[in-house]
């Protein structure tokens, strides 16, 4: 049975009718490049005349896209390449417009989106990444190290909408966030019983920032000769004390003899780290925090400011000692996203998001089984020669392949190998 453009299979009443050839038109169609050379197919496209209505029509070409200028396999190839290359580069390579490439890209992303399922994790990570001069929301499964979503912004309403799109969002038990009130209240309003945990690395980051501000202020007030003594001071002072080499410890202690205020600021930073590293439980952590507050000199406004911030989030900060989860993997995702943005100048937010979520082998896909799906009886299952079972699906009941997330570890490895 023939296939005709715009119609598909013939209607039953048209079967057996004599559709006479009307003319043959030569059509040039682009195909996938071979060995770096453009490939063009010359197709003799037949046109027929209907014996009943006298109208003419072309036969349908199964391998050619509906626009008639490229093959379907080239469309699939372009869809994949659009996640890796700028649209204009692909357009130049295949002699098509960049708007056509974008259309194929958008069709691919729309298809992936329709098959994608967001499942709420037990431990949800919420953070942000600065892309295209805008703060974007990044959502992760912190227990299984999976990227779940990247949103156009990180506003409170967007955070709430994203969480509510997740299946089973009411069952979120823990959310790890930084010290932005929008994240905190978005989670609390939706899942009031969830434990909100402030990421400890953000707490330490604040302490590092306060130390660095004091270091800069002290250094500015020194003579050039004294400033010369503080060579590579930022690198040494912001390094964890247990990671310092013997020569760095000697240099640090020498500085502290000459600049005692620098020593006070340094040990305030390390005392914040010790709250996490040395506290046996939540009670001891609270005690160490109280002693840390009392030890801040009045003139250290930088530490006084972060003291207020810490107190505003005290409950969430010390929830860490009940549920020790962090946003470490979420932070690594942010670094990868920023590197991708830098490598692909001109990538829009949509392309960056699609590239991370759908464009790599780090994307995890799992079958979705419908609860009403029918299954074959076990005594009718087919066994392969090696003894393994081969599933038998009933027509129309095959499981749908859905995207459930992107593995952070695999994504990082792909990027390091240059395969991203």
UniProtKB/TrEMBL annotation:
Transmembrane segments: none annotated. Residues 17-53 form the Transposase IS204/IS1001/IS1096/IS1165 zinc-finger domain. Residues 60-109 form the Transposase IS204/IS1001/IS1096/IS1165 helix-turn-helix domain. Residues 124-355 form the Transposase IS204/IS1001/IS1096/IS1165 DDE domain. This is ISL3 family transposase. It comes from Paenibacillus ehimensis.
């Amino acid at each position: 049975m023939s296939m005709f453009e715009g119609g598909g299979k013939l209607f039953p009443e048209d079967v057996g009718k004599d559709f006479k050839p009307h003319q043959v038109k030569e059509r040039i169609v682009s195909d996938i490049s071979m060995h770096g050379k453009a490939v063009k197919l010359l197709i003799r496209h037949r046109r027929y005349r209907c014996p009943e209505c006298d109208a003419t029509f072309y036969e349908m070409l199964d391998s050619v896209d509906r626009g008639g200028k490229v093959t379907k396999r080239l469309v699939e190839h372009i869809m994949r390449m659009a996640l890796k290359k700028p649209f204009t580069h692909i357009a130049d390579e295949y002699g098509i417009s960049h708007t056509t490439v974008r259309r194929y890209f958008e069709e691919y992303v729309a298809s992936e989106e329709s098959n994608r399922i967001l499942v709420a994790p037990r431990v949800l990570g919420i953070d942000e990444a600065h892309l295209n001069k805008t703060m974007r929301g990044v959502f992760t499964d912190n227990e299984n190290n999976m990227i779940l979503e990247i949103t156009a912004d990180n506003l409170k309403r967007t955070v709430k909408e994203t969480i509510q799109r997740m299946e089973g969002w009411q069952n979120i038990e823990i959310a790890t966030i930084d010290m932005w009130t929008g994240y905190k209240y978005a989670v609390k309003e939706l899942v009031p019983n969830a434990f909100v945990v402030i990421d400890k690395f953000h707490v330490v980051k604040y302490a590092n920032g306060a130390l660095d501000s004091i270091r800069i202020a002290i250094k500015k007030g020194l003579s050039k000769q004294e400033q010369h003594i503080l060579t590579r001071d930022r690198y040494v002072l912001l390094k964890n004390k247990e990671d310092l080499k013997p020569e760095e410890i000697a240099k640090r202690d020498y500085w502290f003899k000459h600049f005692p205020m620098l020593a006070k600021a340094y040990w305030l930073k390390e005392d914040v780290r010790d709250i996490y590293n040395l506290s046996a439980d939540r009670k001891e952590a609270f005690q160490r925090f109280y002693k840390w507050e009392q030890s801040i000199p009045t003139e250290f406004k930088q530490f006084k400011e972060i003291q207020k911030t810490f107190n505003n989030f005290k409950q969430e900060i010390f929830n860490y000692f009940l549920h020790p989860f962090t946003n470490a993997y979420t932070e690594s995702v942010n670094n990868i996203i920023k590197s991708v943005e830098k490598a692909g100048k001109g990538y829009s937010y949509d392309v960056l998001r699609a590239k991370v979520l759908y464009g790599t082998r780090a994307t995890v896909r799992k079958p979705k089984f419908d609860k009403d799906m029918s299954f074959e009886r076990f005594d009718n299952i087919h066994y392969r020669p090696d003894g393994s079972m081969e599933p038998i699906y009933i027509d129309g009941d095959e499981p749908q392949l859905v995207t459930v997330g992107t593995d952070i570890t695999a994504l990082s490895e792909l990027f390091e190998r240059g395969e991203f």
